[in-house]
Write a structure and sequence with these properties.
The chain is mainly alpha-helical. The chain contains 4 helices and 2 strands, in the order H-H-E-H-E-H.
Amino acid sequence: AVVSTQSTGLVDVKGMADRIISMREALKSGLEKEGSEHNWDHLVNQIGMFCFTGMTPEQVARLTEEFSVYLTKDGRISVAGVSSRNVEYLAHAMHTVTK
């Protein structure tokens, strides 16, 4: 029973990791579709549940005030909070405040 529980746990972790990777890729793709001329490679080159966007505190403040997107003042965002439902909105918001 321990082996099957452990295997199931590994499958769950792999699924979460794959979803985070796909959201990073979708965000980068969305920014490119929005017409952003910034290099967003760092979004997909980082690993883990959090991602440094490279946005300034001023840009972060605009994201919060104008789009109700919340992240740390240094531009760190929780990729776990990005989904197929909100990634296009996030890309649009990020592009708007970084252009």
